[in-house]
Amino acid sequence: MSEQELKALRVRIDSLDEKVLELISERARCAQEVARVKMASLAEGEVPVFYRPEREAQVLKRVMERNRGPLGNEEMARLFREIMSSCLALEQPLKVAYLGPEGTFTQAAAMKHFGHAVISKPMAAIDEVFREVAAGAVNFGVVPVENSTEGAVNHTLDSFLEHDMVICGEVELRIHHHLLVGENTKTDSISRIYSHAQSLAQCRKWLDAHYPNVERVAVSSNAEAAKRVKGEWNSAAIAGDMAAGLYGLTRLAEKIEDRPDNSTRFLMIGSQEVPPTGDDKTSIIVSMSNKPGALHELLVPFHDNGIDLTRIETRPSRSGKWTYVFFIDFIGHHRDPLVKGVLEKISQEAVALKVLGSYPKAVL
Ligand SMILES: O=C(O)C(=O)C[C@]1(C(=O)O)C=C[C@@H](O)C=C1
């Protein structure tokens, strides 16, 4: 390519950037107007709701449907995700607590869902995320709920039994683990590998094959593992890209998870109910009396009404020995007439039924 051609293309890019800049600014001014309208239409004592997950899902879907390339749908939606995040920050900067410390996959999930224009707050434990939301110190919390290799995150499920929370969104993240070392690590003398217990489990076969005799030490998070390794000469950590970048570690081996499709699902928790979008999921907790056929009774109304269950998990109820609660996710919104009917039917049989929330299915 000649210098001349390159110069001409850059002139075109400059001119396009000016148009993009003007359009983004016009969109941001529109969001400010939206905020004004929301404030003006408040009833006495009503608090404004600036963040609208149902609308955000609609915007991102529309972008993906209309995208003609060459950028892929996910890439384009990510760009719009950030534009919308900045527009919302003009209306109201969201405060979001997540399972920290900085550099965890949960932080990456929070950014994927809300974008980067939020005030984020790392918490030391899942329960603390719940408490922070319950206390009203933040607008939303982000917690992991299940992993495709290792199953349920029990701390999260148990926290739902203790706190009144509304689930207002979900996000799925492909989890890639790397073996990370610091600049002081002597790579042929590694005698300890730190990571979160779930991550150690997700890389079990790889560790058995490559480091069979090395001590595996479970710590509170992958980011914590990365932090520890920085100052030690005989240890390595298993963690992801964000932690590697944050603590300046080197990848000794990449993508060491046993299953290439290893993914984790995260939930956004808050106090705001989300209206239907037409493509939603609902999460409920049900406790049934301890009698034969109770689980069957619980599942029949879903089957009879053709409602698709996406997950069912059992946990001890914590209110009596050998009594259990079921966590169920299914397709639909609790305001859909069909779903309403099913929930009514279940509540006639159940000891207790709690709708944790209906929320748009993950778009990104
Ligand atoms: O449509 C709204 O209610 C807006 O506030 C605008 C907007 C946007 O930028 O598109 C911003 C934040 C909301 O969460 C949803 C959408």
UniProtKB/TrEMBL annotation:
SUPFAM superfamilies: ACT-like, Chorismate mutase II, Periplasmic binding protein-like II. It comes from the Bacteria. GO terms for cellular component: cytoplasm. Transmembrane segments: none annotated. Pathway: Metabolic intermediate biosynthesis; prephenate biosynthesis; prephenate from chorismate: step 1/1; Amino-acid biosynthesis; L-phenylalanine biosynthesis; phenylpyruvate from prephenate: step 1/1. Its EC number is 4.2.1.51, 5.4.99.5. Residues 95-271 form the Prephenate dehydratase domain. This is Bifunctional chorismate mutase/prephenate dehydratase. The record marks 264 as: Essential for prephenate dehydratase activity. Catalyzes the Claisen rearrangement of chorismate to prephenate and the decarboxylation/dehydration of prephenate to phenylpyruvate. Gene3D superfamilies: 3.30.70.260, Chorismate mutase, Periplasmic binding protein-like II. The keyword Lyase applies. It catalyses: chorismate = prephenate; prephenate + H(+) = 3-phenylpyruvate + CO2 + H2O. Keywords: Amino-acid biosynthesis, Aromatic amino acid biosynthesis, Cytoplasm, Isomerase, Lyase, Multifunctional enzyme, Phenylalanine biosynthesis. The keyword NADP does not apply. PROSITE patterns: ACT (PS51671), CHORISMATE_MUT_2 (PS51168), PREPHENATE_DEHYDR_1 (PS00857), PREPHENATE_DEHYDR_2 (PS00858), PREPHENATE_DEHYDR_3 (PS51171). Residues 283-360 form the ACT domain. One of its GO terms (molecular function) is chorismate mutase activity. One of its GO terms (biological process) is chorismate metabolic process. It is found in: Cytoplasm.
